Amino acid sequence: MNLLLLMLVSALVPQSAPPAPTPQSPPASPAVDDAGARDLPGLHNVVAFHEGFWSGSVPEGDAGFASLQALGVRTVISVDGAVPDVDRAKAAGMRYVHLPIGYDGFDDARKAELVRAVRDLPKPLYMHCHHGKHRSAGAAAAVAVSLGWMSNDQAAARMKVSGTAPGYRGLWACAAKAAPMAAAVIDAASGAFPEVTRPDSFVASMVAIDEAFDRLKIAEKAAWQAPKDHPDLAPVADAGKLADLFRLIDDESLKRCGAGAGDDLKARLARNASAAAELEKSLERAGAARANGDAESAAREHAAATAGLAALAADCKACHAKHRD
Question: Are 70 and 26 in contact (CB under 8 A)?
Answer without folding.
Answer: yes
